[in-house]
Design a protein that fits this description.
The structure holds 2 protein chains of 2 kinds. By secondary structure, chain A is an alpha/beta fold. Chain A is built from 14 helices and 13 strands. By secondary structure, chain B is α/β, with parallel strands linked by helices. The chains are: A alpha/beta, B alpha/beta.
Chain lengths: 516, 449
């Protein structure tokens, strides 16, 4: 063993596989601290907030006082900090490494956006203050609208939807309202949805009361035009199409699809989840789209925050603009009005989707992102996103099996053919990626490909980062093919926890802590 | 461009590896007639961080923020003090830049906090279980109504006279295209008890807000009894969760489902969003199977160590598609984290103190306003928000006060439309409203009345 002059070892002793099986007395493992539930460490008498003296008053509670114990555990401030910092260290995050979840657009989240969203003129204003006192906020919403319409070429935008699925619902409700206006809501019942669609599409169409008719994909991974022609008819309300689609492919026949649907009297809803691939390269208006939601938390990088909040503004064609929900913005010279009341509206809004006016915090972040990039930067975003995905597609094709031939857009789709006869599944392969320090790709989606692995690197990965990632995946693929099955089926062994028993969680659900 | 790591050499090398000569070869599938050659029109080019920040600072300055004015607005969004450590913690990279926890081995941080959140929400509402959040209180209410329809297989939903009008409109919109219909009772103060008259054998649920939009407390117990006798469910709506530190929980009063707005804890006003929808219900198999949104559940890993996963997902759109209980996917992740951390800082002791302080402050202001000429407090009961009748048009009065930089409440007409409650003003008081603010409101009211 190498030592310095005071006898302190300067190089580690031969450790081999030591460490992996070490059982510590504390349950913690070095930097990874053991951390029980808040309800196990907190106390009913502990508190991390100070209050001024509370004056006595005659209660106006009408005899409805809560006199039982709520049971809320409290902690002092330092204990709270430690609890949640420890928990945070059990999460993977973009700031830690490449997050290749296909269809999720896990890109860098600029901290400028977090700074400006906390300015008091956005963060500390009430949704029902007099409109004369929130002109800065309304102007900001106006600017966001301008950018979204310019990027898509569309005629109007509904800002209030709170996430992608909420935006889908908004767009489909606009279509429903337009059909009502035409007197065809009872005759046009069918919505065409490709099999490869995100599950929210059929769920949304059903929530609007439509019937879902699935469209199969052709051998190239795109809408089967022959089948589409047979399904189009006078009872079709709309087609819901993701473009680029969930196989990571641009729907080449999209203009023809739009024409077919329009000629049959239906509308074209586009799922905008994959807008990151096409900004500045084409405008959805020119593709014939009538309505499309935009996931601000994907394309415009308002952070995902462990599952939200998101925002899903919907851009609309002229044919649907009048049906946008309340509230909506109206410019009057330099001043802005928010039309909140159907009685004041000159249009035909289909209703109101939620209280207040939408996800202001996401609008601020998205605008900061769009302004930072500008028209030139946004085009570069899409070009680099597509370049990065195709680069990975090219590198990984040496050992893995692409689901379709040819170039992809911003995400590369593989099937599990390369794992045939290895005894390793897509799930095993994904879990082995965790041991290598990567978040797995989207797995088993889209459903049209066996053992799907959908990889979306985004434009904010460097070439060096992509090279390291590709090298790791190639090495894993080779290991699987060489019979090292054990590495995969036991994975992960280096994460904070090993594979979790999801069957047990669903069979006997434990959804909350309860005192023994 | 500061966010893009690739340089021209990288791009050239990567195109060569792919085997194409230009980037546009990768976009060849875009139909020729739809290709964009130049830059997007009517947009500026990229901007420096300094330039962007300057633009936003200027925009921010064009609004009158709650911190620079005596402030009395509520109506479903409340200004409470959020401890600095909450905002610090939710900005940690590992929380802020993580996705939905679909890979539980490397998402225990998010999953454990969701489990803590679910427990806290269940405790607050007095219900058995809660989900991992919906978008906000209004959409949670709409989801609750649709769930009640699926459970009871009945066709009518009755909305209370004291339900927030924007919540009522959200429910009405959500039921378009569905078989369920809405019976919305005429908005009025002191009328929520009359809901029992609307119950019939086709009623799936009655929806009652407590405290109601006028700030009045509602005894849910007789309503839940009547609803249950008629085979209907009681959906309790809470827009100010701090009230649950002082008044009986919906669970204690017999609610079957609770839909609430969680913004008050951990989350700022932010002009109406993002907020966090709380959703809780009875621990009944039928209820849980019909519930919307995500649940985090406890389980063990391969070594038997306890851990958490997203569970019961066969209800959800990514598995069930058109038969899903809801189309929701993204929820309010980071807002739930803020909620959970703030509530952990408060604990039982702090949460009850906070509620008591809010109530005491509101009582003090109500007494002061009632003594003014031209102002009459209409509530006999309230928590931290009440309705006053003013001698004049409340919208004009609020505008006139705003010109004096006093944000003196919400004219009822802003919520209900003009013509019905034009002389009513909703006033909210929290721990952030000081005596000096009371003085300013009193002076402003006297000047404009």
């Amino acid at each position: 063993m190498a030592m310095n002059s005071t006898g302190r070892p300067t190089a580690p002793a031969n450790q081999n596989d030591a460490g992996q099986d070490v059982k510590t007395f504390s349950g913690s493992r070095g930097l990874l601290q053991q951390e029980p539930l808040l309800h196990e460490v907190g106390g009913l008498e502990k508190c991390g907030v100070d209050f001024p003296p509370i004056p006595d008053c005659k209660s106006r509670l009408d005899g409805l006082e809560r006199d039982n114990k709520i049971g809320l555990p409290g902690l002092s401030e330092p204990e709270v900090l430690r609890h949640y910092v420890r928990l945070s260290q059990r999460n993977y995050a973009i700031d830690l490494g490449l997050y290749p979840l296909g269809s999720c657009t896990m890109k860098h989240n600029p901290r400028l956006n977090e700074k400006v969203v906390r300015l008091p003129g956005f963060a500390d204003i009430h949704p029902l203050q007099p409109q004369s006192t929130v002109q800065g906020a309304l102007a900001l919403m106006g600017e966001v609208s301008h950018w979204l319409m310019a990027i898509t070429g569309m005629d109007a935008v509904a800002l209030s939807p709170k996430a992608g699925a909420h935006g889908e619902w908004c767009g489909m409700m606009c279509i429903r309202e337009a059909l009502k206006d035409r007197g065809e809501v009872d005759t046009r019942r069918r919505v065409l949805v490709p099999e490869s669609a995100h599950g929210t599409n059929p769920a949304t169409a059903a929530a609007c009361g439509f019937e879902i008719d699935e469209l199969p994909a052709d051998v190239t991974g795109r809408v089967d035009m022959d089948v589409l022609r047979t399904k189009i008819g006078p009872d079709v309300a709309a087609i819901m199409l993701t473009n680029p689609n969930t196989c990571g492919l641009f729907e080449r026949d999209i203009c023809e699809i739009a024409d077919l649907v329009h000629e049959a009297g239906g509308y074209f809803y586009c799922d905008g989840a994959n807008l990151n691939a096409i900004m500045g390269k084409t405008r959805v208006r020119d593709l014939g789209v009538d309505a499309m939601h935009i996931n601000l938390h994907k394309t415009f990088s308002t952070p995902h925050g462990g599952g939200g909040p998101g925002a899903g503004p919907v851009v609309l064609s002229k044919r649907l603009s009048a049906y946008a929900p309340l509230p909506y913005l109206k410019a009057d010279g330099d001043s802005w009005t928010l039309v909140e009341d159907a009685a004041q509206s000159e249009a035909k809004p289909f209703g109101r989707m939620s209280a207040f006016h939408g996800q202001m915090g996401m609008f601020v972040r998205a605008l900061a992102y769009m302004m930072s990039h500008g028209a030139d930067g946004l085009r570069q975003v899409s070009e680099d996103a597509v370049l990065n995905a195709n680069y990975l597609l090219a590198c990984l094709s040496d050992e893995m099996s692409p689901a379709f031939d040819g170039a992809c857009m911003h995400e590369a789709l593989f099937d599990d053919a390369f794992l045939k006869d290895t005894g390793v599944t897509t799930l095993d392969f994904s879990k082995a990626m965790i041991d290598e320090g990567y978040h797995p790709m989207t797995m088993y989606f889209p459903l049209v490909v066996h053992g799907a692995m959908l990889i979306e690197p985004t434009e904010t990965e460097s070439k060096e980062s992509l090279d390291r990632f590709a090298d790791t995946l190639l090495a894993l693929a080779k290991a699987a093919k060489s019979g090292d099955r054990e590495r995969f089926v036991t994975a992960p062994v280096l994460a904070p926890l090993r594979r979790l028993d999801e069957t047990r969680a669903a069979r006997s659900p434990v959804l909350r802590w309860a005192a023994d | 461009m500061r966010y893009l790591p690739l340089n021209e050499d990288d791009r050239a090398a990567m195109l060569a590896r792919i085997g194409v000569s230009s980037i546009d070869d990768l976009f060849a599938d875009i139909p020729a007639k739809a290709r964009l050659d130049g830059l997007l029109e009517n947009l500026p080019e990229h901007a420096t961080e300094m330039a962007v920040e300057r633009h936003f600072t200027a925009l921010s300055g064009r609004s009158l923020n709650a911190g620079e004015a005596p402030f009395f607005c509520g109506g479903g969004a409340y200004r409470h003090h959020v401890p600095a450590s909450v905002d610090h913690l939710i900005q940690r990279s590992e929380f802020l830049t993580a996705y939905t926890p679909y890979q539980p081995e490397i998402a225990q941080g998010t999953l454990q906090t969701l489990f803590e959140f679910q427990t806290q929400v269940a405790q607050l509402t007095g219900m058995d279980v809660a989900n991992a959040s919906l978008y906000d209180g209004s959409t949670a209410t709409a989801e609750a109504v649709r769930m009640a329809g699926r459970i009871t297989r009945r066709g009518k939903c009755v909305l209370a006279p004291g339900l927030h009008p924007q919540y009522a409109q959200t429910v009405q919109t959500a039921l378009q295209g569905q078989t369920m219909r809405v019976q919305a009772l005429d908005p009025a103060m002191g009328a929520d008890a009359k809901m029992v008259e609307a119950l019939d054998e086709d009623t799936a649920c009655i929806v009652v807000q407590n405290p109601n939009v006028f700030g009045e407390l509602v005894d849910l117990e007789p309503l839940s009894k009547a609803a249950h006798e008629a085979g209907a469910l009681l959906i309790a709506v809470v827009t100010e969760v701090v009230s649950l530190g002082l008044i009986k929980s919906p669970g204690e009063m017999g609610a079957d489902i609770v839909a609430a707005e969680g913004q008050s804890i951990g989350n700022g006003l932010s002009f109406g969003g993002p907020y966090v929808g709380l959703f809780a219900c009875r621990n009944d198999r039928k209820f849980i199977r019909q519930a919307p949104g995500r649940f985090a559940g406890q389980t063990v890993d391969a070594d038997g160590k306890p851990g958490y996963v997203l569970t019961l997902s066969t209800r959800e759109q990514h598995i069930r598609r058109e038969k899903a209980t809801s189309n929701i996917c993204t929820n309010s992740g980071l807002c739930t984290l803020a909620f959970t951390i703030h509530l952990a800082l408060l604990g039982e002791l702090g949460f009850r103190k906070l509620a008591k302080l809010n109530h005491a402050r509101a009582c003090a202001l109500a007494d002061r306003l009632n003594a003014l000429d031209g102002v009459e407090v209409l509530n006999t009961s309230f928590f931290n928000e009440f309705t006053v009748r003013v001698s004049g048009d409340a919208t004009e009065i609020v505008e006139a006060m705003a010109k004096k930089s006093v944000l003196g409440g919400i004219p009822a007409a802003r919520l209900f439309g003009a013509g019905k409650f034009d002389d009513l003003l909703l006033i909210s008081v929290t721990e952030t409203t000081l005596d000096t603010d009371f003085d300013a409101l009193e002076t402003a009211l006297q000047e404009v009345l």
